[in-house]
Every structure is written in C-alpha cells, then in structure tokens.
Amino acid sequence: MGAPAAAGAGQGQGEGKEYPGRLTLYVFLTCAVAATGGLIVGYDIGISGGVTSMDAFLQEFFPSVYREERTARGGGGGQYCKFDSQLLTAFTSSLYLAALVASFFVASVARSLGRRWSMFGGGVSFLAGAALNAAARDVAMLIVGRILLGVGVGFAGLSIPIYLSEMAPHRLRGTLNIGLQLMITVGIFSANLVNYGAARIRGGWGWRLSLGLAAVPAGIITTGSLFLPDTPSSLISRGYHEQARRVLRRIRGTDDVEDEYGDLVAASEAPGAVRRPWLDILRRRYRPQLAMAVLVPFFQQLTGINAIMFYAPVLFKTIGLGGDASLMSAVITGLVNIAATFVSIATVDRLGRRKLFFQGGCQMLLCQIIIGTLIGVEFGASGDGTIPKAFAAAVVALICVYVAGFAWSWGPLGILVPSEIFPLEIRPAAQGVSVAVSMLCTFAVAQAFLPMLCRMRFGLFYFFGGWVLAMTLFVAAFLPETKGVPIEKMGVVWRTHWFWRRFVADEDGRAGNRDVEMDYRKAEGIAVR
Questions:
Q1: pTM, to two decimals
Q2: CA nearest to 220, candidates 42, 342, 339
Q3: What's the average model confidence in pLDDT over 453-464?
C-alpha cells in the first residue's frame, strides 16, 4: 500500500475547524452527570458473574448447577463444564436480548423527545428491574427483572454516548466521552466489592442485596437526568433554536457561538429530507458509518472481555481458586479496569483513536495466547485436575494485563467512535444499530461462553485471540482518525480515506466543508487536490 493510501487510512492526527470557547465547569458537570449512566451497565456486568458463583443463589434457583459444581463432573468435561447450564446463562444474557429490542424503539424517543428523556426512561426501567430481581421467588421473576434491566441498558446505551459527543468541545470529545467508560468500570468494581461482601453474609440472602443494590446507580442517573439540559444538536433538530443558542453559549462559556451554531443548523437541514432514517441509513453515502456502526461493536464483544468480566468469579473458581479468592480476584481485575481507563482519558485526544486501538489489540492478543496455553498445560483437554497456586496467580496477572489493554483501547473507543461519526440526520437510528449489534453480540457471547468453555476448553482463549487479531488489522486498514474533527464536520474523514471516499465523494462533497477538508488533508499528509 502506497504512502497516500496509508495516510488516507488516518494514521496521522486529524485537525478540524476551531470554534471559540473553552471547557467550562458547566459542560464538565453535565457530562459527568450523564456519564453516571454507565454505572448501571457496569454494575450489571460485575454483579451477574458474582451472583451466579454464590452457592445460596445456585441452590435456590439452579440446584442442578450447584450439584454439578460440587462434583465437578459436567458431562466428562471436568473443571471446564461444571457451570454449563443454558438456564443459568439465560439469566445473564436475557438482559442483553431485551436491550437489543429496546434499542430500536429508543432511537425514535431520542429523535423526537431528546437525549435526556431517553436517559430518564432508562433509569426508571432499571429501577423496576432491580426491585423485581431483589424480590425474586423463582427463575421467571429473575428473568422478567433482567428484561426490565435490559430495557434500561438499551435506553442508556443509545442516548448517553450521543449526549456526551454532542455536548463536548470537539478537541476534548474523546476525554469527556470516555467518562462513560470510566463509570462502567466503576460500576463493575463496585459490583465486585458488593459481591465479595454479600457472599460472606450468613443466612443465604446476600445475593438479594447484590441484585437489589442495582437501584443505587439507577437512582443516580434517573435523578440526574432531570437536571440536565438537552444538547444543542437535539434542540435544533426539534425546532428549539433560541434554546439551543442559549445552551451553546453556556456550555462553551462565550457569547461568540454563531459560527458553531451556524454549522449545527446547516448540519440539521439534512434531516428534513430524511423521513425514514432506518431506511435512509442504507443509502450508499452512509455506507462507511453503517459499516462502523456494525463492525466496531461486533469486534468489541469478540475481544472476549464481557465473557471474562461476566464470569470472572466463575472462571477463577474453575481454575482452582476458592469462592472468596475468586471474588477477590474479580475485585482486583475491576480495580485494574478503572486505573487503565484513566490512561485512555489522558491520551485519547493527544495520541488519537487508532494508536490506542492498535496497541491495546496487540496487548490483548498476546495475553489471550499465553492464558490459553497456561490453562491448557495444567488442565489439558480433559479438564481434570487442579491448577497450582503459582499458575493461578499467573493467570490472574495475565487477565489483569489483558483487562488493562481493553480498558484503554476497545473498551472506551468502542463506545466513543460510533457516537462521533454519524451525521445528525441519522445519528439516533445509527446509534440504535450500533447498540443493537452490541447487545446481540453480548447476548450471544454470554449465552455461549460457558458451553464453549466446556467444549473448546483452553482453545476458547485462542478463539478470542483470533478475533482480536482480525479487528486489529481492520482498524489499521479501514478506520480513519477522528481526533480533533468537529462532530458536525466529520464527513471529511470519509472523503479523504483511501477506501471509503469512493462511497461519499460524489454525494457529500459540499463546499461548506472545504476549509475543514483542506486542514484535515494537511494534517494527515494527504495531497491537496
């Protein structure tokens, strides 16, 4: 591949148009409040695996799994198969199927009522699900509660990333958007701490505390969303122009917002011709964004991270750590997750998205290969036996390195990139596609992980490693750099990309973006035509 093509792939840093204004305390606080919606997603990821490793929970709802765990003879699979139960995985994965369905309806809500009311609806649904799960008497109640939680996750997963990208100054869009991923990691860590404490409660009701405390993060985003302003882009698209101008002045900290306001209005004019966004997104001019809306969340889930975070306590138990030790190991990985996310916050708007994607992918690939090899050496294909403490410690350490690589690459960027690349006219619908793909893949991975662990044994880690290699190569070839480009001018990154420009050059070459395109080409080292 020649130099122009490589540059066109976005290896340099993207520079866009400058608007007056600064990072104000107001925009920081609004983004921080909105990002707390990530707590509900993270808390659920962390709580599910811990609860399903608690003996009292298994005895009450999944007695066959409890007996199998006691004997560790899951159909001849030894240690690999002792947690294999479709009913047990249905408890975990039903949430994500519900979120998938909800995502198709949330786009219409976000488009017609605004982003903040979508966040509010998600919080209310999550509150109801938390109450039902805490009071569950049978598996049916558990799964209905999980479905309500899933609706909440679907609402939050669509509206919050868009809200953050639309509110943030373009040069700090990555930093503020990754606040959502930070809150997800805090939610995971908090859930791991709760699980560790709840598992030590005598009387067998600790699991109810773990599930019921999901109401705390739900209450935070539900209450917080009532005090948030809607984004200028959303207000303009719904006809509230003066209110949009007032919000823009406040979040930029200056009265000189006419340039940015004018660009937002120009970007909003296209929706008048877009009557059916779910069909219009299939048009050729939106092919690059649609490809990223599908492939980025698809690849993110196939890193294997959710499999590890869902079932970290179960996985650590499988490799020979005791119940308390496995939960504490999950707490350790949660802490690593938080710390590594700060690395992404500090570097994403300096190094750019592509460099973090590439470095994190290489790190995760190496860890997956070594983890699979270590477990394979000790358990072999049969899964019989126990793992020495030194090996168990090495596996935990490698999982921490793997989690760190994910936490500063595919974790935050898998949310950030889809939320910043869509034009306003299709943004809610396109984000709905992204969330639906993410939830579908999460559902599939959650449903399949334990059966795959039982059947593929240590080869499961090689399976995920192969996908990490594929996604790293995909980013290197096809993902343009979006750092520093205003969200309403994002079309330039596709028109200057070696592959995607063939889809958008004819339809999206508006003269109003020519100045941004010239700046971007100079920064990327692409020949100016």
A1: 0.78
A2: 42
A3: 80
pLDDT, residue 183, reads 94
Confidence check: pLDDT of 300 > 70: yes
Of 17, 14, 516, nearest to 260 (Cα)? 17
3-state secondary structure of 255: coil
Domain-located, residue 241: no
Residue 264 lies inside a defined structural domain of this protein:
no
Give the residue from 163, 114, 162, 425 showing the smallest Cα distance to 268.
Answer: 425
Nearest-angstrom CA–CA distance, 424 and 233: 8
Q: Is the separation of the CB atoms in 129 and 149 below 8 Å? A: yes
Instruction: Tell the burial category of 250 from Cβ atoms under 10 Å away from its Cβ (0-12, 13-18, 19+).
Output: middle
**What is the spatial distance between Cα 399 and Cα 308, in angstroms, rounded to a whole number?**
8
Q: Which residues form the domain of 313?
A: 25-72+82-228+270-524
Rg (C-alpha) for the chain, rounded Å, is 23
Q: Quick one: pLDDT band at residue 82, thresholds 50, 70, 90?
A: low
Cβ–Cβ < 8 Å for 232, 247: yes
Give how far the C-alpha of residue 246 lies from the chain's centroid of Cα atoms, to the nearest Å.
Answer: 31
CA distance 268 to 272: 8
What is the torsional sign of CA 484, 489, 491, 492? negative
Question: What count of other Cβ atoms lies within 10 Å of the Cβ of residue 380?
Answer: 13
pLDDT, mean of residues 489-517? 70
CATH number at 486 reads 1.20.1250.20
Residue 220: burial class (beta carbons within 10 Å; 0-12, 13-18, 19+): middle
> What is the mean predicted confidence (pLDDT) over 93-109?
83
As a whole number of Å, the end-to-end CA separation of the chain is 20
Residue 258 lies in a domain: no
CB within 8 A of 195, min separation 6: which ones?
46, 47, 50, 51, 54, 210, 313, 327, 330
DSSP, res 168: S
Instruction: Give exposure, 410-425, as e/b (b: 16+ Cβ within 10 Å).
Output: bbbbbbbbbbbbbbbb
The region, left, alpha or beta by phi > 0 then psi within -120 to 50, assigned to residue 21 is left
User: How many structural domains does the chain have?
Assistant: 1
* 32, 294 Cβ separation under 8 angstroms: no
Q: What is the 3-class SS of 21-36, one letter each residue?
A: CCCCHHHHHHHHHHHC
List all residues 6 or more positions away from 514 whose beta carbon is below 8 Å from its beta carbon.
none
Average pLDDT, the chain: 80
Closest by CA position to 37, among listed 152, 170, 135: 152
Residue 176: Cβ-neighbour burial (10 angstroms; 0-12, 13-18, 19+): buried
pLDDT of residue 30 exceeding 60: yes
Asked whether 10 and 493 are in contact (CB, 8 A), the reply is yes
CA separation for the pair 459, 441 (Å, rounded): 20
Residues in the chain: 529
Residue 92 belongs to some domain of the structure: yes
